[in-house]
Amino acid sequence: YLEGLSQSEAKIDPAAHPSDVIGCLPHQREPISARRPLKHSARFRFNMAAAVTSAVPSAMDCAGREDADCPENEVTGGDAELPERQLQVPEKENAELVAEAEAVAAGWMLDFLCLSLCRAFRDGRSEDFRRTRDSAEAIIHGLSSLTTYQLRTVYICQFLTRIAAGKSLDAQFESDERITPLESALMIWDSIEKERDKLHEEIQNLIKIQAVAVCMESGNFKEAEEVFERIFGDPESHTSLERKLLRIISQKDAFHSFFQNFSYNYMMEKIKSYVDCVLNEKSSTFLMKAATKVVENEKARTLASENKPNATETETEVNLNKGERFVHS
To answer: Which element (helix H / strand E) includes 159?
Structure first.
């Protein structure tokens, strides 16, 4: 059944600036009819996150804290009491080197956040998913350019964000207000993987069917018909399976047995299988490997400390042994 559905192609310019890529709309189909009302679109769109500065402690934030965690406190805390000869002017930074280093670090963070986003999606932790999504948006907005690898990472974040909002028909991700979240996810899915393996095809076709089914379940049969026309295009090229789906739409049968083989839950299972592949791929990224090493070393130190005998207890045992020898002598 899945192989009977037609394919669609998404076109996204990989040379675009990151802030443009995030909200970039792949191939648009011709208008069908009336627009869907627009509701709280900015909250769901993956190109309007909070500014990058919101993720970084400001000087005012640090002023309200007295702990040593704040970089400003560490640098300026004792300057007033130091002799003048001890105050040294730091060497001028190599601006180009710093910019390149920041770009590399941002790439590491993007990889790590994509990894965290995938885990939250797979485990159904919606609050963690939203928080990580917002952090990823901030990092992406701070990048001046994207490598091919980073572009694919952005696509994965975009895709999961739209799938997570798949049943929210009032969520808008594209400039065309009629495009539903699953339609938007479908366009991005076409850009993620260059090689079309079996899993890719299954997910693609399940999204197509569920983009229609979600509208029908909500009682929006007119919108379901419009979504069908945008996805499957020219009626003369429809397969037998596509014609069957169109008949079900015309019958307004949202719970037809047809959907049991292409259910929303089944679609999510397949997408989580893909997410597992991404997790395996990105589990060896730099930040994850470095963090894992730190945790392992910390656990080893803790274990060694617990196994080391207490000095006082050892001394007491020695004194008791001496006392026993004195009594028996």
So the answer is: helix 148-164
